[in-house]
Amino acid sequence: xxxxxxxxxxFIEFDSxxxxxxxxxxxxxxxxxxxxxxxxxxxxxxxxxxxxxxVPEMGQLGFFGANLKGYGCAGMSNVEYGLVTQELERxxxxxxxxxxxxxxxVMYPIYAFGSDEQKDKWLPQLAKGEKLGCFGLTxxxxxxxxxxxxxxAKKDGDHYMLNGEKMWITSGSIADIAIIWAKVEDEDNRVRxxxxxxxxxxxxxxxxxxxxxxRASVTSGLSLQDVRVPxxxxxxxxxxxxxxxMCLNQARYGIGWGGIGAAxxxxxxxxxxxxxxxxFRDQPIASHQLVQQKLAWMITEITKGQLLALQVGRxxxxxxxxxxxxxxxxxxxxxxxxxxxRMARDILGANGIAxxxxxxxHMMNLESVKTYEGTDDIHTLIIGASITGIDAF
Amino acid sequence: MKILxxxxxxxxxxxxxxxxxxxxxxxxxxxxxVNEPDAYALEEALRQKEKHGGEVVVITAGPARSQQxxxxxxxxxxxxxxxxxxxxxxxxxxxxxxxxxxxxxKEENFDLIFTGLQSDDYGYAQTGVxxxxxxxxxxxxxxxxIDKQDGGIKVKRELEAGFFQHVDMPLPAVLTIQSGIxxxxxxxxxxxxxxxxxxxxKVTMDEVRSSLGxxxxxxxxxxxxxxxxxxxxxxxxxxxxxxxxVEKLKNEVRVL
Lengths: 393, 256
Ligand SMILES: Cc1cc2nc3c(=O)[nH]c(=O)nc-3n(C[C@H](O)[C@H](O)[C@H](O)COP(=O)(O)OP(=O)(O)OC[C@H]3O[C@@H](n4cnc5c(N)ncnc54)[C@H](O)[C@@H]3O)c2cc1C
What we know:
The structure holds two protein chains of two kinds. By secondary structure, chain A is of the alpha+beta class. Chain A is built from ten helices and nine strands. Chain A has helices at residues 20-47, 55-61, 78-91, 93-113, 116-128, 242-276, 289-317, 323-347, 359-371, 376-388; strands at 133-136, 152-156, 159-170, 177-184, 190-197, 203-207, 219-230, 278-279, 283-284. In chain A, helix 1 packs parallel to helix 3, helix 3 (78-91) runs antiparallel to helix 4 (93-113) and helix 6 (242-276) packs antiparallel against helix 9. The longest helix of chain A has 35 residues, at 242-276. In chain A, 53% of the residues are buried. By secondary structure, chain B is of the alpha/beta class. In chain B, strand 4 (55-62), helix 2 and strand 5 form a beta-alpha-beta unit. At the A-B interface, helix 1 of A face helix 2 and helix 5 of B.
C-alpha cells in the first residue's frame, strides 16, 4: 500500500468552476483508482505487467470512448472525459495510455471515419472492453514525421494487401484490432486508415522489452507482411494525414489532463512527506524556505495547468477548439508534470527513488508521455507556426 | 418493494476540520461526501430492487450542495430523488429532521425506509428510529442482512460481542443499516449521464415548517481537543518509585 493517501489538490477553489456532474465523475473515478489501481500498481510496474484483469470493470464503468455518443458509450462532455483521464493518470500513465488508445485512437477513428457496419460491429464491443485495439502510425524510421511512412496498401480485387512495419505501438500484442495507417498506392499514396483484425495471416506483434517507462502498459512493434484484408476494412471517411492527426488531437487533449493527475500525485506525496520528515533542530523539512519554494512552484504550476485544461475543454465542448490549443495543454501540462516529479523526488531525498512512493514511476512514465503524441518540441513548433504563420518543422 | 433511502452529506472523514466563528459547527467550505453507512443503505436498497423489483427513492435534507448525494444515488441506480433544500436543515436535530422527512413523504407509500446506522458528523443514530416512531412503523437497528418473506421480512441485527439477532418483521418498516454489509458499487459514467433525466422533487422549508418544533438538542460548543503533555518525575529509591508508580497507575490512570 502507498505511504500516503492522496488528498486531492485544489488551491483556488477550482472545483467551483466544475458542475456537480463533473465533480461526481472525477470523484467516482478517483475512488476507483484509489481502490483498484493504487494497491497493485507498484507491483505491476516492477513486473512490467499490464493489469488486464481490470479491463472488464473499466468497460463496465464506461471509461472507453467515454466522450462518444451512442454504441454503449457514456456520452460524457470533454471536460468530464478530461477529469477521467486526470484521475487515471494520477494512478499511472500506463493505465491512462491504455484507455487513451482504446478511446481516442481506436474507437474515435471508427466513430469518425468508419462505415455504419464497422461502427455497429466494433464500437459496442470496444466500449465494453470485450475487444481491445491499437493504433499503428509510428514506424521505425518515421516518428515525428509520420508523413514519410513506408507502410503501403495495394488494391487486390475486392481486397487490399498491406505491407510495412509499425513501431512503439501501445497495446499492440494484446489488441484484437489494429487501426493501421498506410499509403494507398492506387490513390496517389494518400494516407488512409484500415481496420485490421490482428488474427489476419501475416500480422505479427512483438513486445518491446527493457522499457524503463510505462511498464504497466504494453508496447509492441507490428509487422505486416502481405496482410490481405477485405475492402470493407478501409475506414471509408479517412483521407490524408489529417485523419490520424485528428485522432491524435483527441488523445493529446486527454493527455493534457492526464499530466495534471501525475503532477498532483507527485506534489501531494512531497507535501505530505515534507511535513513529516524532520532534519536539523527536529524541524520538518517543510519549514525550510528552499523546500517551500519547490512546493509553491508545484502548486502554482498545477493550478495554472488546471485552468488551461479546463478552458481548452470548454472550447472543445463548444466545438471551438483549435489544434494549437491542444498542443499547448499537451506540451505545458506534461512538461510541468515532469518538473513536478523531479522536484518531488528531490524533496523525498533517497526515499524518492524507491517504489514505496509513486514519484519515480511517474517520472519515468512522463518521459514517454513527453515524447509520444507529438514530442514537446513538435508542439512548440505547432504553437510557433500558429502564431507566426511560418512552419519551422 | 418501494424503498426510501435517507442519505446525508457529511464533511469528508479525512478532510481538515475548520470550525465556524461561533464554535458551534463546521465551516461551509470543507469537502463533503456521502455519509458512509448511508452508502451501504443505498447499496442494500439497490440490491433488494434487483432481486425483487420495485423502486428506490433517495431523500436528503440540506443546502444546495447536498444535492450531490442525491446525484450520486441516482447515478448508482436510484429511480428518483427528494431534496428538502434549505441551509436551515443542517441545524435541525434528529427529531426535527425525522419530522421533516415524514412531512415530505406523507403522500407516498413506501414498504421500507432505510437510513444509515448513524451519521459520521453528528453521530446521533436517532433519525431512523424517531422517523419510525413518527410514522407509527416498527423499526430495527444495525441491520446486516434483509431477506424478503411472505408478508414481511427477516432481518439480521448485529449485537455486541459477536452476537447476532434474527427478527421477523412486518412491512412497512424502518431499518438502520450497518456499514460494510455489502460491496459498494461505483457509479458508471452512463449512470451519471442518465441521472440528469431522473425526477428530483424539491421540498422547501416552508412546506414542512408547520410539522417542525423547537430543537430538543443543541450543540453548545465544538472544539478540537487540546493536546496536553505533562511529565512528572518520580524520585526516591527504586522501591519508593515503584510504590508511587503503582499508586498512580491505580488511582490516576486507573489501568490496574
Ligand atoms: C511508450 C510509447 C508508446 C507509444 N505508443 C504509440 C502508439 O500507440 N501508436 C503510435 O503510432 N506511436 C506510438 N508511440 C510513438 C511516438 O508517437 C513517437 O515516439 C513520437 O512521435 C516521436 O517519434 P520518435 O520517437 O521517432 O522521435 P523522433 O521523431 O526521431 O524525434 C527525436 C527528437 O528529435 C526532435 N525532432 C524531430 N523532428 C524535429 C523538428 N522538425 N524540429 C525540432 N525537433 C525535432 C524530437 O522533438 C525529439 O526530441 C509511442 C511511443 C512511446 C515511447
